[in-house]
Amino acid sequence: MIRLIRGIITLLFGAAGLYLNYMLINFADLNSLTAKIGWELSLFGTYIFSFILFSVLGFFLAPVCIRFFMGLVRWLESKLTLLPTNDLIAGSVGIIAGLLIASLFSGSLSDIPFIGPVLSILISVFLGYVGLIIGIKRKDDLFGLVSLIPKLRSEKAEKDKKDAKGKNKQANSAYKILDTSVIIDGRIADIVKTGFLDGVLLVPSFVLEELRHIADSSDVLKRNRGRRGLDILNQISKESMINVEIYEQDFDDIAEVDSKLVRLANNLNASILTNDYNLNKVAELQGIKVLNINELANAVKPVVLPGEEMYVQIMKEGKEPGQGVAYLDDGTMIVVDGGRKYIGQNTSVLVTTVLQTAAGRMIFAKPKGLLEKSTEEFSHEVNAYG
Question: What pTM was estimated for this model as a whole?
Fold first, then answer.
């Protein structure tokens, strides 16, 4: 190995002699000089002489160069082993950056005769050393910049994950889960026809199973209600206004249908369509959006104000003595004070009070003739005592 290295050094010195001879000939312009004085000078001979001279010099200097190189390697190794890993990486990056900058100048410096290549080497060494020092001293900033890239990537991934979750949540929020009560009620079909509902109507398999049990009941009333619910579902599924899907998954660990509906709504972040008062309250306590058709019906009922006149048919007696009960077309109850004697008759009444309850709206009224008579009697008494 030592002989091989010595031979390489000898050849390198010979090549350096050839290059030096070439530079001297071009610098001194020996070709034109020999032409003027008429001397015959063999340029090829000068190349051979330079190569032999520098090769011999390199052969004898090779052991010194080898020892110097090995000493330099040991010195660098001892210094590098003492450097922390962070300093070593930062210094390497700085050296690479310095050499890249030096390469930008080497092209222009190489055109300078004789000293151009030397200047290129000196500038490369200088900028490499500067890059080493700056890289070691600013290692914290360098590693901070490097660590910022994974952080930005993680933040971007987290943001994309949140966006995807938000989109998924928004997509799931379009689901509206149908309860058994709202299917049997039947008004959901009319609401679907109006186009006020959007998204997807989701019918869980356990709701269908409950409807099937009701339709197979021995009780005639329950059987008719169950069959009506199945007919309503078929009618809705044929409508092109909204999509109807069957949710096959069941919750075997839960027995009650209402609890299953709440669990499903939580899992899908969906809302529940129901007429069940208890399910409505339980779902609202757990933060689930509830669409109650009874509340919708109450909201769209015509507003009746005290003092308005209405023409109604009194159908039956009220709970209190002398009361009569009438109904509007939408089922709103009208309690007519003193209307018992008008049972079975159509009469004009004046609204006295309107009450909004959880069960719906109740209207209290008095027959128009009776109210006008009492008002007239009150006026006479005032005038008598006035």
Answer: 0.42
